[in-house]
Amino acid sequence: MAARLHAVIDEVLPHRALAIFTELCTGRPQKKAGDPAITQRITISELDAVRRQVADGQRPSRAVIAGVEHPVLVYGADTGAILVLCDPQEPARADAETYVRAVWKIAATRIRQQVSEARPDYLRESRAVSSERLQVTAELTDRHVTDLESLLAALRSRELDDKRARALATDMATSAVVRTKTGSDLVVSLAEEAVSQAFEQLKNDLRPLSRYGTLGVQFVEPPADGRALPGEVAHAARAIVRASALLMGDQDDVTRIRIQWNCDGTNLLVSIRDDGPGHLSRGLPALRQLSARAAALGGHLTVNGVESWGSEIDVRLPLDPPDTSDQAVQSWNLAPREVEVLRLLADGRRNRQIATELGISENTVKFHTSQVYRKLGVTSRAAAASLAADVGLRS
């Protein structure tokens, strides 16, 4: 929808990028199109700040979008949704403002209708995106927990007087606030990190545990020339290690934790070992959550304990996402020609273009398209393209 709206509006009111924000879509509240330099960096918090201004009766002419202040045109809707045009140019015709308002009203109404209809394909997409957002929230929560544990360790330390403890706590709190505001953990979710850089970040995260307490943390460095880690793998690995270290540190008689990363070119291999009573069990709710996080990336988590020798948590996270396209296509029972049509449809080709490329008539394309809709259980071109994109089915 965002891409279509961008194309239609750009004909009468040229603009660099477009964004929609609506709380009706719990799975994907933001929809965007235009210059990737903006659309790939725009955040929900930025759009929400604009939405609050509109709710207060304002119509801002400038706003922070993608981390930079831009000229904007903002349009509200009775559904609570907003449309933001970034870097608008001179209108191509006199009635551009009226035209944009009318088109946006139709789009906002369609969004509300789509949510209320809640077709199965829309729900699947919404649930998938919601799960991703919940995972990011959980990872940020882990970071906040680490910060709070570090603050408590400094304030509870018997080796520091009150003045020194307050100074340390203030410095640590300031650093935590800066990290929170910059959202550094969100940025890395779409990037790659050198394995040594990712491990160094982990060491910085956990250093307060040993600096302000009696717990010793030993780090075994990964190979410096190891394969770079996808952002989501590096982020998940750090979150799992942080949570595991805090869980181990809460046990009685634990004085040392050993953390090791390795990379075999295909997987990131993580080991967290303590010298405690050896009673950790995978059945613990916290470990079940960590296991589920590893599984979400196609990985695996195991827990082993030996009485009076300690516990060990081993994690394997694949660096490449699984190729699910063939499996999904097989489950849809598509004929070979229907797969070809779906591939081209997912690339945004129209019926005439598909017919030309495959050497068939438009009526034949329409027939194959209707068969694809039926087998995928969808009712629209956009829904079929969305499912195809979800499993990586592209030409």
Please tell me about this protein's structure.
- The structure is a single chain.
- This protein has 395 residues and is of the alpha+beta class.
- The chain folds into 3 domains: 2-117, Beta-Lactamase (2-Layer Sandwich); 127-318, 2-Layer Sandwich (Heat Shock Protein 90); 323-390, Arc Repressor Mutant, subunit A (Orthogonal Bundle), CATH 1.10.10.10.
- It has 15 helices and 12 strands.
- The chain has helices at 2-10, 36-39, 44-55, 96-117, 120-156, 162-182, 184-187, 195-211, 231-249, 285-296, 325-332, 336-346, 351-358, 362-376, 381-390, and strands at residues 17-21, 30-34, 62-65, 68-76, 82-86, 192-193, 216-220, 229-230, 256-263, 267-274, 300-306, 310-318.
- Helix 8 runs parallel beside helix 9 (231-249), helix 12 crosses helix 15 (381-390) and helix 13 packs across helix 14 (362-376).
- Keywords: DNA-binding, Transcription, Transcription regulation.
- InterPro entries: HATPase_C_sf (IPR036890), Sig_transdc_resp-reg_C-effctor (IPR016032), Tscrpt_reg_LuxR_C (IPR000792), WH-like_DNA-bd_sf (IPR036388).
Short summary:
By secondary structure, the chain is α+β, with helices and mostly antiparallel strands. It contains 15 helices and 12 strands.
Biggest sheet overview = 5 strands, antiparallel
**Measured distance between first and last alpha carbons:** 22 Å
The CATH topology name of the largest domain reads Heat Shock Protein 90
Low-confidence stretches: 116-135, 183-190
Topology order in helix (H) and strand (E) letters: HEEHHEEEHHHHEHEEHEEHEEHHHHH
From the 3D coordinates, which CATH architecture of the largest domain would you assign? Answer: 2-Layer Sandwich
Q: Which descriptor suits the 3D outline? A: flat
CATH class of the largest domain: Alpha Beta
From the alpha-carbon coordinates, what is the Rg to the nearest angstrom?
Answer: 26 Å
State the share of residues found in helices, binned by percent. 40-55%
Beta-strand level of the residues, as a percent range? 15-25%
Number of separate helices: 15
Q: How many individual β-strands? A: 12
Q: Strand pairing plus helix content: what structural class? A: alpha+beta
Strands in their spatial order, largest beta sheet: 2-1-5-4-3
CATH superfamily of the largest domain: Histidine kinase-like ATPase, C-terminal domain
What is the overall pLDDT average?
81
Domain unit count:
3
Pfam family, one: GerE
Keywords: DNA-binding, Transcription, Transcription regulation
Protein name: LuxR C-terminal-related transcriptional regulator
